[in-house]
Each structure stands twice: as C-alpha cells, then as structure tokens.
Amino acid sequence: MGRKSSNQYDVIVVGAGMIGAAMACLLAKQSRDYQSGPLKIALVEARPAPEFDTERFDPRVAALTEKSRQLMERCGVWDATAAKRVSPYLAMEVWDAEGTGRIQFDCHDIHQPCLGHIVENSALVEALLTEIAEADSVDMFCPSLIADYGNTDQGISIELQDGTHLFGDLLVAADGANSAIRKHFNFETVEWEYGHQAIVTTIRTEQPNQQTAWQRFMPTGPLALLPLNNQGDQHHCSIVWSQKIELAEGLVALDDQQFCAELSRASEHCLGQVVEVEQRFSIPLRQRHAKDYVIPRVVLVGDAAHSIHPLAGQGANLGFSDIDVLAEEIARAVERDIDLGDLSILKRYQRRRKPENLATMAAMEGFKRLFAADPPAVRLLRNLGMSTLNEISPIKNQLIKIAMGL
Ligand SMILES: Cc1cc2nc3c(=O)[nH]c(=O)nc-3n(C[C@H](O)[C@H](O)[C@H](O)COP(=O)(O)OP(=O)(O)OC[C@H]3O[C@@H](n4cnc5c(N)ncnc54)[C@H](O)[C@@H]3O)c2cc1C
User: Fold this and answer.
1) pLDDT tens digit string along 208-265?
2) Inter-axis angle of helices 18-30 and 66-74, nearest 10
3) Quick check: CB of 127 below 6 Å from ligand 1?
C-alpha cells in the first residue's frame, strides 16, 4: 500500500477469465476511496483478450445467480454486459428420465423478475476488461506468459517470458482448473474423475425456449438446455450435455443431422425438434478441491481452488463469491494497515469460503450419484421425492432463493 515503484504491486492477479478479471475490477473500484490511495494491481493473462461475437452465441455460457449479477453491478459492468447480450430465465423445469418425477421453479412464485441470467463468458470478460482498461490503478499484461515465480524480500515475484519482473504483496491465482500457481506452490488437492465429458454447443429449436432452463437427468448424465435470447428471438439454447466419456465421444462424432436427432430424443422433444447445431466442444469433467486455498502471499480463487460438475451451474457463481469475500478481507487489512499477504488475512478468506464451496461440491456429487443409481427402489424414491417437493411451495420457494444466492 502507499507509493510503489513501477514494477511493484499491492496485488498481482494471474488469469483474466471471469473470476480473475472480476477480482481486478472489484479491487480497483473498491480501493478508489482508500485514504492510502488505490491499490496498485497487475493483471496477467496468457491468452489474447476474448472478443464478443455479436453474430454468434459463445458456446461457453454461465447461468449467473442474482447474487453474482449484483456483484457485476458493483464492478460497474452489468449494463455493458446486458447491452451486448444476456438472457434472463424465468423458470426452470427439471425431470427424471427414468420415471415421472418432475419439479418446476418459477420466478413469479417468489415475486422476482427472473431466476437468473444466462451470460456468454466472452461478453462478461470483454465488459470487465474494458472497465479495467479505464482504471489507472490496474496494469494489464495480456497476452503474457509467466516464466517463473519466486518469493523475495520485496514480496512475491513473477518473471514474464519477455523478461519483465513484477513484485507483489499478494498473488491471486485465478488461473483456472489446471492452475500452474497451485502446482508451483505445492497446494495439495483432492480430486477425482467424474468419468464424464460435457458436450457444449448452441442449438436452434423448433419451438421457442419459453425463457425456461430445462434439465433432464439421465442415468448416463444430465442434459441442460439453457435459453438464449437474441433480440427477442427465443429459438436458441446453449446446451451442456454431460455424458459418460465413451458416449460423449460417439455423440461428438455424429454429423449435425444425427446429433440433432439424438438431442431431440434425449430432451424428450421438450422444445420440439432440434433443427440446427453449431460446432460442438467436449470438455472433460473433473472434481477438484484444494485442501488449502492460502499460503503466505498466495491465494487461490475460482476454479483454481475448486472445480465442480456443471450440473447445477454453480462453478462461476462460487468463484464470484470467493472474490467478493477476498475483496472484503483485503479492505479490512487496508483499514488496519496489515500486510495484504499476511496469512491471518488470507485464512479469514479461507474460513469464510470453504464451507460453502465444499457443501456445493458435495451436493453436486450427491445429485450425480442419485440420478446415476439404477435400483428400482432408488428410482422410485427419487421420483416420489421430486414430485412431493414440487407440491410443497414453502420449501420449494426457499430452495429457489438459496439457488439464486438471495
Ligand atoms: C460445461 C460447463 C458449463 C458451466 N456452466 C456454468 C454455469 O452455468 N454457471 C456457473 O456459475 N458456472 C458454470 N461453469 C463453471 C464456470 O465455467 C467456471 O467455474 C468458471 O469459468 C471459472 O472461471 P475462472 O476464471 O476461475 O477460470 P477460467 O475461466 O479457466 O479462467 C482462467 C484464466 O487464466 C488464464 N491462465 C491460465 N494459466 C495462466 C498462466 N499461467 N498465466 C496467465 N494466465 C493464465 C487462462 O487463459 C484463463 O483466461 C461451467 C463449466 C463448464 C465446464
């Protein structure tokens, strides 16, 4: 804090995906009014900045909760993101492929305008990076590869491949699920394969999506159809089809017409026929959780700390909660004039974030196993449970509020 020489920073954030870019943006905003002056921040990203394509939907989308949307508002980027393209969803319909269990959630039941928003990753990151470019307190190194890390008496150090050295009081690892920082600093993880791959793509359907998120649970994995809105045209969905690896490989290899037919069948024609499909991508799914998120001067956030099954669309939302809490703890440290890399500060962040992250991961694992289970008794109970829950409004409404982060 206070005056720093040109290559010295209060915080170095590595990774400008949704979580790292939001971290840099939030810190820049919140520190504008610090008595000691704004925090000096470096943001390092290996890949060129993504460009939002107005013509085509990004195959990578995230269903953002209201809590995450509010955070984006505080970052000053919600309006800019919405001006590019966001798709509010008003309802959610979840059903079991192996029975009659079905549950519907509707925003009107809890007097909200929507349940959440489907946001294209590139739209959000582009808005965040534009906002960051206007902040004098953030230096962006992009695209820039990191050659080495070190710990010096000037703090944590990073050497970029072009020979530039950066020094920071705190290094925030937002470098994603395969975090090189996590590996370099020997953070231990607990991880296991789901044995699933997620096929992601954009489809066009015969019937409009009704601004509803559709999710069908099959024993081989869940299929989600997330409604996309293009200037009032509601015939597109982003799909996340999690499948056992061998099945996913077979589906990716199909030609477009065969794939559309398979997907129409798998979605039980909930939106009629699938009539068009864009390029398909297959993403291996692996659950991973760092045993610790912090060591002195280094902190993991977002997928670098935890990556979870996308079946409930919570990964990015958890990451946004991470950075919200970390920013609060940083503000607290500045107020008390404590070194930002001090373990006591970082441990407070870890204590506040671990329980929710672990609970969400456990819930996702439970869902996955519950719907993969084949014994008739389990199937019966699962279907009965869903249908019963669907009839109990107070519990259902409470569930919606929790899912929205309200
Ligand atoms: C199929 C699928 C669907 C999903 N749907 C949802 C959803 O609906 N809702 C939701 O909340 N979440 C969802 N998620 C999860 C969500 O996508 C992730 O949690 C989120 O993208 C993680 O963001 P991140 O910034 O932590 O990591 P990433 O998005 O992986 O970003 C990491 C960044 O770091 C950069 N980087 C990596 N290494 C270096 C390095 N050494 N130096 C510099 N830069 C580096 C990368 O280039 C990248 O830009 C989904 C995930 C999947 C796979």
Assistant:
1) 999 999 999 888 888 999 999 988 899 999 999 999 899 999 999 999 999 999 999 9
2) 50
3) no
Residue 200 beta carbon below 6 angstroms from any ligand 1 atom: yes
Could you read off the pLDDT of 373-406 as tens digits, one per residue? Answer: 555 555 555 555 556 656 666 665 666 666 666 6
Q: Tell me the pLDDT tens digit for each residue of 57-85.
A: 999 999 999 999 999 999 999 999 999 99
Q: Give the whole-angstrom CA distance, residue 177 versus residue 308.
A: 10
How many angstroms does the Cα of residue 298 sit away from the middle of ligand 1? 19
> 63 in ligand 1 pocket by Cβ < 6 Å?
yes
CA 346 from chain centre, in angstroms, equals: 22
**Structure tokens of 220?**
């081989």
164 class by beta-carbon count within 10 Å (0-12 exposed, 13-18 middle, 19+ buried): middle
> How close is the Cα of 17 to the center of ligand 1, in Å?
6
Nearest CA to ligand 1 atom 15: 315
CATH of 8-403 given 3.50.50.60, 3.40.50.280, 3.60.40.10, 3.40.640.10: 3.50.50.60
Domain ranges of the chain: 8-403
Q: Which contiguous run of DSSP H or E holds residue 315? A: helix 315-335
pTM, to two decimals: 0.93
Contacts of 389 (CB under 8 A, 6+ apart): 103, 395, 396, 399
